[in-house]
Design a protein that fits this description.
Helix 1 runs antiparallel to helix 2. Helix content is 93%, strand content 0%. The N and C termini lie far apart (54 Å). With 74 residues, the chain is an all-alpha fold. It is rod-shaped, with a radius of gyration of 24 Å. The chain is built from two helices and no strands.
Length: 74
């Protein structure tokens, strides 16, 4: 899903509804814009979660390597 293009499409529908006085079209556009906004926020949160999990994995890998090195030195 391309959230940015969906946001633009929703906004365009909303404006078209305002200009033509079509309340249903305006409401549909507003709903599409809000849905696209929410999807963008969800995508951002997902990206941040993946980033945090990758960082945690790296830290765990480092700890495991240090533990293996310590065992081999004994």
């Amino acid at each position: 899903m391309n959230t940015q293009s969906d946001q633009v499409k929703g906004h365009a529908k909303s404006v078209a509804g305002i200009v033509t006085g079509n309340k249903d079209l305006q409401a549909e556009g507003d709903a599409e814009t809000r849905t696209a906004d929410a999807a963008a926020h969800i995508d951002d949160a997902k990206d941040k979660a993946v980033e945090v999990l990758d960082h945690i994995k790296d830290r765990l890998d480092d700890a495991a390597d240090k533990a293996k090195d310590a065992l081999h030195k004994k």
